């Protein structure tokens, strides 16, 4: 069943997460992610951004509330294997395997033969600008190139949702900007959804159509901000007065989050 961009792909309803040591990481978090959303989770360290991402990924179980996927006629508590992909802060590549083999891994685990997977892997590498590096090993790549391999591997199964946990945090500004633009181009073309965890107000405004500002522990949504600016976004956008206005508004919301102030919309 196809869904239009306004249809919810996943919904969180009063979701809470308490760890076995008693820490309440999330409390009453409610949110809907649409079928072509680019959402950033923004908030101070320890506010539950990464915990929320792992709940969506199925790497953790909710302690309270409901998390539901809307993939067909009936909501489901779990996604299918190919519905989502995860890009972590570190590239987590296999050092003994070539770039091709690293990107091929999800298809190999799914039982797809190397010959059958060859065009798909080559296409994924082309999308991230690494066609010439297919036979190279990770030790020969820069940090930005390793992250490109991770993104290609995450997209190889054509997921409905891409989860990103600060994947560009350790990169220099020029590399980070280039990867932001490349990611937006791929997202626009292939029409999947993205949830990205970030500490950067500037990055969240540049990338997102919605920013979810979260309060310190227990994590919860303090404010949701829409960035109603057209895509594609270029370097002209991040030097515009509108961009500055959005950044000021989001910075204010982040300060409110630190103070525990909730703003209803």
Give a short summary of the structure.
The protein has 265 residues and is an alpha/beta fold.
Head-to-tail CA distance between termini: 31 Å
Name of the level-1 CATH class of the largest domain: Alpha Beta
Shape: globular
CATH topology of the largest domain: the name is Rossmann fold
Q: Provide the residue-averaged pLDDT.
A: 88
Number of helices: 7
What is the helical fraction, as a range of percent?
25-40%
Main sheet properties: 6 strands, mixed
What is the topology, as strand order, of the major beta sheet? 5-6-7-3-8-9
Secondary-structure element series: EEEHEEHHHEHEHEEH
Number of strands: 9
So, the CATH homologous superfamily of the largest domain?
A: P-loop containing nucleotide triphosphate hydrolases
User: How many independent structural domains?
Assistant: 2
Q: Give the DSSP E fraction (strand runs of 2 or more residues).
A: 15-25%
Named at the architecture level, the CATH assignment of the largest domain is 3-Layer(aba) Sandwich
